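Side project, low priority. Logging it here so it doesn't get lost.
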Amino acid sequence: MQLQALVDHAVTEVGRVLLGKEPQIRLALCCLFARGHLLIEDLPGMGKTTLSHALADVLGLNYKRVQFTSDLLPADILGVSVFDRTDATFTFHPGPIFTQLLLADEINRTTPRTQSALLEAMAEGQVTVEGETRPLPSPFFVIATQNPIHQSGTYPLPESQLDRFLMRLELGYPHPQAERTMFLNQHHALGNNRSPKQCISADQLQLIRQAVEQVHASDNLLDYLQRLVAYTRQSHEFAVGLSPRGALALLDSAKTWAVMNSRGHVVPEDLQMVLPSVAAHRLVPSGDYAGDNQALVAILQHNVDVVGP
């Protein structure tokens, strides 16, 4: 099966339980294929958990969920060594992070100390507990959800940790037609309908990731990327522009989007499709734009037209 048909099949399966959100589903798959991690920011009840569980189903990944609360400790995520009296040794009991797809639900409800427990795992695919480094399963994919920062009882993620997420998505309210379907079939609304079928095997996932590494980006495309990045660094609308790591994340995501559309080279439209999701949480707007994510996305989309392909 061609890669594009494989991806389309996966999108269709996830779309059976998350209605009317095809663009967000494709971006979430793009994030996973690009070896990144995903942050979903939205109000409660929008389908964040449904999306993460459905992605685990279509990819056949081991799945664990951790509900982040204010009293959660790093050991609750990473694991802990327990003394065994029978042989007078300590035995390590792995935490829920030892899985392939980890849902860190409401990550900004817990303290910065516990939030930071994910940093090494997300960056290096391993965790160090009590002086011993332990590898995590492969693939390892974190989906973190967070409530809008204006809600009470939240601890905003620092910029350094936001940068560990390849993409940030918002699901938003459903389209009226999709919402009507939920009303007519409450199994959709309650998440009790059948689980999505596995569409992509471990070998196929590895082939997709290998294909991303072979995608070609022309000199003209790289010129366009550099103009986009330079705009974020020089424009008065941004207090902080894209870092080199952010620019690489943008290129990797564009290459992955090209593979998902059965192309071996990147075109400007690939960059344009992934730009808001990859860049918005890495940029710091200035002046009147501070704290306004919607305005920031609008600036980014206008930026695409300003610098031109």
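Brief comment: The mean pLDDT is 87.
Revisit when time allows.
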